[in-house]
Amino acid sequence: MSNSLTFPSQAITGNYPSSVQFLDVNINYTLDQNQITVANAGAINVKIINLLFTSLGSRPFEPDFGLDLDLLFKNIVSNGVTAYKAKNKIYSALKKWMSSYINITPAGVNVIAAPVYTAYFIIINYTIVGSTVPQTLGLRYNQ
User: Which domain range does residue 36 map to?
Assistant: First the structure.
């Protein structure tokens, strides 16, 4: 079985104030849709997903951008240890690269090992800078 990442359609929606404006490409875009971009919370979620699943060193002028989650999830020490390491790496990367977009605390990042499903669930709770509306991004990483 190959590695895969599930992008739930609700990952690109959210409640947000109209005064906060962010745009990005819709990761769920298909040719039969009209909406090629997403705004605000949807755009922030796309940025977070891009950060999480960009390999370290893959951007020539930003070699520290991204995480090696694929590598971490392939080299499992134990499900609990791997989930803990992933949580810390995700939180550190979000603080470093997304702090101008989101407010997040260590408690806002959860990684849950689900060996029965051979998957990890990543849940990120945050608020957009300038907003008090909580946002949640949930991802499933299949091994």
Answer: 4-142
| Residues whose CB is less than 8 angstroms from the CB of residue 136 and which lie 6 or more positions away in sequence, other chains included | 123, 124, 125
Residue 19 pLDDT exceeds 60:
no
Cβ(143)–Cβ(119) below 8 Å = yes
Token pair for 40 = 């605000």
Determine contact, residues 43/58, Cβ cutoff 8 Å. no
What local confidence, expressed as pLDDT, does residue 131 receive?
A: 82
CATH number (domain holding residue 133): 3.10.450.40
Q: Are 20 and 131 in contact (CB under 8 A)?
A: yes
- In the three-class reduction of DSSP (H, G, I as helix; E, B as strand; rest coil), residue 83 is classed as helix
Mean of per-residue pLDDT scores for the chain? 78
**Which of 20-24, 44-48, 124-128 shows the lowest mean pLDDT across its residues?**
20-24
